[in-house]
Design brief:
CATH superfamily of the largest domain: Aldolase class I
CATH architecture of the largest domain: Alpha-Beta Barrel
Largest sheet: 8 strands, mixed
Number of helices: 10
Low-confidence stretches: none
Structural class: alpha/beta
CATH class of the largest domain: Alpha Beta
Order of helices and strands: EEEEHEHEHEHHEHEHEHHHEE
Number of strands: 12
Radius of gyration: 19 Å
Distance between the termini: 42 Å
Length: about 325
């Protein structure tokens, strides 16, 4: 087996160190269609939990990859859709914990399905859960997250509160700040109140790294994020948004970066083009795109409903 269909990486993660990603649903099956999503628009908006990808095939790939006991900080259920939609999540987490107890498990999720008891039960053996909560008021929630029509934000928040009561692992709650929407004093008060009930270990403030689904989404200033972080006191808050250019991570694969550059030298390309052309997962390609944008080597341009990347003429 030379290529993998459902696992990707390991890739350096700001929050999880060296992380091996595990895709549980196909691109882009989700409960939300967030305006800031950096992997594209949701193509299947749903609340249906089922076995979107054969559980046995995912575990077979993991067994093959982990045979050499690679050094990892986390095995992470994530990808380009909502992983808690997969009905086999609990079984997979339990199998990995039994066979590979040396590895920690993480789950990157939009947090929408924890109102379901079976989803809360499915994550009990996962070491770290990274859910999102971008708004409390229904109007702002609908503007930012564009949910499935059956989802109510009050139900989602109640599910996150119940998760904290039943789950003993680490919860890192991400809030994605969009100026003009969820950074108003009124919305922040609602978020602060919700966070006080959810009781995450850490609130992580994030914002745009690279173009999202909608071109009108912009990032706040670092000074504004600092102000917002202080408003959550005494809750522990981290700002994970990138504002300064950082050195390349030790896990950075220069061959992947070279492949992206060579591709863009020939013609501009979308994220989907690059993933297909280089046979790499969208989460992996996006890490390198972010770095190339940071160093001002490439730029993004909007074309109708999509973003293209191209070499920047300096």
């Amino acid at each position: 087996m030379n290529t993998y269909k459902y696992i990707f990486g390991p890739i350096p993660s700001r929050r999880l160190g060296i992380s091996l990603g595990v895709d549980l649903v196909k691109h882009k099956i989700c409960t939300l269609d967030c305006v800031y999503c950096e992997v594209g628009k949701t193509t299947c908006l749903t609340l249906e939990r089922k076995e979107y990808i054969p559980t046995s095939e995912i575990l077979d790939e993991l067994e093959f990859f982990l045979a050499d006991s690679p050094k990892l900080d986390y095995i992470t259920f994530s990808g380009a859709g909502e992983p808690t939609l997969h009905s086999g999540l609990e079984y997979m987490a339990n199998q990995i914990k039994q066979k590979y107890p040396q590895y920690k498990l993480a789950l990157i999720t939009n947090g929408t399905l924890f109102y379901l008891p079976e989803v809360r039960a499915a994550v009990k053996n996962i070491d770290c859960i990274l859910p999102s909560l971008d708004a409390v008021s229904e109007s702002i929630f609908h503007t930012i997250n564009r949910p499935d029509s059956l989802l109510q934000n009050s139900t989602i928040i109640d599910g996150l509160i119940k998760l904290r009561h039943e789950y003993s692992g680490v919860i890192l709650l991400e809030i994605f700040i969009i100026p003009g929407l969820n950074d108003s004093d009124d919305e922040l008060k609602l978020l602060i109140n919700a966070v006080s009930k959810i009781k995450p270990d850490v609130v992580q403030l994030n914002t745009l790294d690279r173009p999202g689904t909608e071109s009108w989404v912009h990032k706040p200033t670092k000074e504004r994020l600092d102000e917002i972080a202080l408003s959550f006191a005494p809750q522990k808050v981290e700002i994970i948004a990138k504002f300064n250019k950082k050195p390349i991570d030790s896990g950075y694969n220069i061959d992947v970066e070279f492949g992206i550059i060579e591709y863009l030298k020939r013609r501009p390309a979308t994220m989907s083009d690059l993933c297909s052309g280089l046979s790499r997962h969208v989460n992996e390609i996006s890490k390198y795109i972010t770095h190339l944008l940071d160093i001002d080597f490439i730029e993004s341009v909007s074309n109708n409903d999509d973003f293209y990347y191209r070499i920047k003429n300096n």
